[in-house]
Design a protein that fits this description.
Structural class: alpha/beta
Number of helices: 18
Largest sheet: 7 strands, mixed
Number of strands: 15
Strand order of the largest sheet: 1-4-5-15-10-11-14
Bound molecules: pyridoxal-5'-phosphate
Length: about 450
């Protein structure tokens, strides 16, 4: 029995990592190369310069450099809201009656409310450093737009966010936060782009879609001098920045002489999971330890568990390169789900490769069960979790219940990627019993696989 472990294991400010860790340097086999969507040849850096900042392109394509220095300016902002706490879920353990020791790394302690700020700050910094004049992006549920608005405002960099029109109507507070940070929020489709005008002409009443918002963000970046478009998940650069989550968790666990038997995270595009597991996966790949690593995805958008390992676009706007990943197909339209951040069709190429080669597991869970876990967690641990993060909570609780049956004192670590304060309509729908579970049929998936690019 371990004694004297505090509820919150708090690193000091000096312990905020000074380098990001690039898991790719320790992968026995790299992920298949990105392909140019026009020529189908493996990408070179020059192909990416029109899309991403130079420094980010280097990070994107680097599979040998193990550590990247975090620029001082970025680390200074990290210090404002980091180190993020690693918490011991004593109350939850007690309620479950489990001998397992449960830890979670909480990333919701900043205004954007999630881990996304970790990469937004880095991306905004490199854009400013390169002398860019502004950025564009899209946001569906709103978390990425909020994080990037906060980061761009800090570096005095203009930002245009195309927000899916229905979301901007359903989540006016998200829009208000972005505007507080001086971002221009444009409900999409809009009259500001050719594609937006075309879609509005064809379908004046449309509520928009993520694909359309992406296309508008990309068109605006392409036609505005000095602007670039940025992405908040999936890409290697984002996983690199998010490694700060895992590095801190690793160090904090070391301080209390613990090591996880199981590491669990929710997976949308894979960035919080990829960041959390990075140093633990390193240990696994180098033979130092052998933790189980588990991705939890929504049953409504099951990229790992029911998707194909195939080349696909990283964005529905079809300008980013082809990546080999687990995907349900860019044409997949996920049924309504309250975990907006998990509705992405594909999955990080790095995580896809690790999963394909048997280094990690994945499960898909239904949202009503996930919300039940979210509500319990909120009661016992005083944090109202984001619906996305609740997928990891659910799975951690299931593992802890198994330990109760077997009597095993396992150490479980999970990622609590954000807060649920902007998701109260989801909690309302859970509470009043109108929440339903959508699971795509095999036919739905086949239809969507048919939209995969023919490069396999
Ligand atoms: C966006 C988001 C996710 C999913 O994105 P990943 O890139 O898979 O991490 C998970 N949790 C929260 C709170 C989010 O905002």
């Amino acid at each position: 029995m371990k004694k004297n472990i505090p509820y919150r294991i708090q690193l000091s400010q000096e312990q905020v990592p000074s380098q990001w860790y690039n898991l790719r340097a320790d992968m026995p086999v790299s992920h298949d190369p990105y392909l140019h969507p026009g020529t189908l040849k493996p990408l070179v850096a020059e192909d990416l310069y029109p899309i991403f900042c130079k420094k980010l392109v280097e990070q994107e394509l680097d599979e040998t450099t193990r550590f990247f220095d975090i620029p001082d300016e970025v680390r200074e902002i990290y210090k404002v809201y980091r180190p993020a706490p690693l918490c011991r879920a004593y109350n939850l353990e007690k309620k479950l009656g489990t001998p397992a020791r449960i830890y979670y790394k909480y990333e919701g302690n900043n205004t954007s409310g999630s881990h996304k700020l970790n990469s937004a700050v880095a991306q905004a910094y490199y854009a400013k450093e390169q002398g860019l004049k502004g950025l564009t992006t899209e946001t569906g549920a709103g978390q990425w737009g909020t994080a990037l608005a906060e980061a761009c405002n800090y570096f005095d960099l203009p930002l245009i966010v195309y927000m899916v029109k229905v979301s901007s109507e359903q989540k006016p507070y998200r829009k208000a936060v972005m505007e507080t940070f001086n971002a221009s929020v444009v409900p999409s489709p809009s009259e500001t782009t050719d594609i937006g005008k075309k879609i509005l002409a064809e379908n004046p009443g449309t509520g928009g879609s993520l694909g359309c918002a992406i296309s508008e963000a990309i068109e605006t970046a392409a036609k505005t001098e000095g602007y670039r478009y940025v992405l908040g998940s999936v890409m290697n650069q984002v996983l690199l920045h998010q490694s700060i989550i895992g590095l801190e968790a690793y160090e904090a666990l070391e301080m209390v002489d613990e090591y996880p038997d199981i590491v669990i995270g929710c997976a949308g595009g894979g960035s919080n999971l990829g960041g959390l597991i990075a140093p633990f996966m390193r240990d696994k790949l180098t033979g130092k330890a052998n933790p189980r690593i588990v991705a939890v995805e929504p049953a409504s958008c099951p990229s790992f568990t029911r998707g194909k390992f195939a080349y696909d676009f990283c964005d529905t706007g079809k300008v980013t390169p082809f990546a080999k990943m687990y995907t349900v197909g860019g044409g997949f339209i996920p049924s309504p789900s309250h975990a907006g951040g998990l509705r992405f069709h594909g999955m990080s190429p790095v995580l896809s490769k690790l999963y394909h080669d048997g280094h990690m597991e994945a499960v898909a869970r239904e949202q009503s069960k996930v919300f039940e876990a979210a509500v319990q967690f909120a009661k016992y641990e005083t944090i109202l979790p984001a619906p996305e993060s609740a997928h990891a909570i659910y799975e951690a609780m299931e593992e802890a219940k198994r330990c109760k049956e077997t009597g095993e004192e396992k150490v479980i670590l999970f990622g609590l990627s954000g807060t649920g304060y902007f998701d109260m309509s989801a909690y309302m729908s859970y509470k009043n019993g109108t929440m339903t579970d959508f699971i795509p049929t095999d036919e739905d998936l086949e239809r969507s696989f048919a939209t995969l690019p023919k490069v396999q």
